[in-house]
Amino acid sequence: MPYDPRMNNKENDELFEAILALETMEECYRFFEDLMTIKELQSVAQRWHVARLLDLKRTYTDIAEETKASAATISRVNKCLSYGADGYSMVLRKLRKEKD
Questions:
Q1: Chain segment 56-65, per-residue pLDDT in tens
Q2: Which of 33, 42, 69, 88 is 20 to 30 A from 50 (CA-CA)?
Q3: Could you write out the three-class secondary structure of the chain?
Q4: 37-48 pLDDT, tens digit each
Q5: Are 54 and 75 spatial neighbours (Cβ–Cβ below 8 Å)?
Q6: CATH 3.40.50.1110: does it fit domain 38-100?
């Protein structure tokens, strides 16, 4: 499924270009520290952690224990994995390929 066209705007394009310009982990930390609050970054990182665990076929109970994510968050991420724009799955595949 393609991404939601409502996301397509100049501001998002500029943000994504900035992210794609980052080259190192330190650059990422510095950019995201300025861009987001600690809580915002923790929420995004938690969703990514949930996605990785769902990809490993972990149970909701295990995921909730490990990540402290709510059932609603786990369900939302699972819905994106199953019916979303394939963003999580695409990156998970790329990361697996890099490890091989």
A1: 999 999 999 9
A2: 33
A3: CCCCHHHCCHHHHHHHHHHHHCCCHHHHHHHHHHHCCHHHHHHHHHHHHHHHHHHCCCCHHHHHHHHCCCHHHHHHHHHHHHHCCCHHHHHHHHHHHHHC
A4: 999 999 999 999
A5: no
A6: no
